[in-house]
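Sequence, please.
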C-alpha cells in the first residue's frame, strides 16, 4: 500500500513538473495563440473573401487550416478549425472524427514546393506532442522533414517493426519509442489516435502521449507508415515531444 502511494505520488510530481516545463518553453507565445490565429483570422478571411491569410489554406468543409510555421525552413502545421485542446481530447477517438492525419499527409506537397525539391515519403514525418511537451493548447500536427538520424535508425530496424505496438530495439533521440507499421498509402480511413488509445497502458493516459507518423516504403515495395509513440516521463527527462524526431533545418533535402 505504501509503495503504491509513493508510486502515484512520484507520477503526479513527474507530470506536474512536466506541465511547468512545457508552459515555459516552445514558441514563446501564449498557449492560445494558434487558436486565435485560426479562429479569429484565417477562418473569417476564408469565409468573407476567400483569403485565408496568414494561413496557407482553410478547408471549411473538413474543418482544418494549414499554417506555415515560423520555426523551420519548411515546417507547416495542420490545425483544426474546431476547438480541440490536444492529443487527450476524446473527440479525436470518435467514429466521426475528421481524418486530420490524412489531411496533414496530403499537405506535405507544400514542403516540396517551399524547398523546390520533391521530397520522398520516407523523408517526411508528422508529429503531435503530449500535453507536457507542447506550448499550444490547440491541437496541431507538425508537418516537417524527419531527422537524418531517425530516418537511418528506422530503416536499419524496419524488419523489427510489426503490425502490433512494440518497443523499438534502439532509442530515438535518447528516448524509448513504441512502434508499429501501417499498410496504407495515404492514411485514408485510419485513425492513428484511436490505434494509440487502444494500447492497454495508454487508455487513461493520453495526455502524456506523443505520436509521430513517418512515411516509408516497406520491404516488399508497398507504401505505408511507421507509427511511433512515447510516454512523457519527467524522471527520465522525457517531455513526450515527438517533434524531437523532426529536423526543422530539413537536412534530408540536401543530403546526397
Amino acid at each position: 500500500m505504501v509503495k503504491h502511494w509513493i508510486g502515484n505520488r512520484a507520477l503526479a510530481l513527474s507530470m506536474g513538473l512536466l506541465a511547468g516545463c512545457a508552459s515555459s518553453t516552445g514558441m514563446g507565445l501564449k498557449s492560445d495563440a494558434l487558436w486565435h490565429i485560426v479562429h479569429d483570422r484565417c477562418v473569417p478571411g476564408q469565409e468573407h473573401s476567400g483569403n485565408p491569410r496568414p494561413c496557407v489554406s482553410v478547408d471549411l468543409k473538413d474543418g482544418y487550416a494549414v499554417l506555415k510555421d515560423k520555426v523551420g525552413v519548411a515546417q507547416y502545421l495542420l490545425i483544426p478549425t474546431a476547438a480541440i485542446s490536444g492529443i487527450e481530447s476524446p473527440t479525436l477517438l470518435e467514429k466521426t472524427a475528421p481524418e486530420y492525419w490524412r489531411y496533414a499527409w496530403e499537405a506535405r506537397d507544400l514542403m516540396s514546393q517551399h524547398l523546390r525539391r520533391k521530397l520522398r515519403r520516407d523523408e517526411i514525418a508528422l508529429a503531435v506532442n503530449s500535453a507536457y511537451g507542447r506550448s499550444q493548447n490547440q491541437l496541431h500536427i507538425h508537418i516537417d522533414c524527419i531527422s537524418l538520424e531517425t530516418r537511418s535508425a528506422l530503416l536499419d530496424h524496419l524488419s523489427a517493426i510489426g503490425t502490433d505496438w512494440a518497443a523499438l530495439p534502439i532509442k530515438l533521440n535518447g528516448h524509448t519509442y513504441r512502434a508499429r507499421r501501417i499498410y496504407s498509402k495515404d492514411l485514408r480511413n485510419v485513425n492513428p489516435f484511436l490505434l494509440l488509445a487502444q494500447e492497454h497502458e495508454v487508455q487513461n493516459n493520453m495526455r502524456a502521449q506523443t505520436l509521430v507518423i513517418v512515411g516509408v516504403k516497406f520491404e516488399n515495395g508497398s507504401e505505408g507508415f511507421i507509427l511511433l509513440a512515447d510516454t512523457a516521463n519527467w524522471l527520465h527527462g522525457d517531455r513526450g515531444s515527438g517533434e524531437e524526431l523532426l529536423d526543422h533545418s530539413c537536412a534530408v533535402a540536401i543530403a546526397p
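The radius of gyration is 18 Å.
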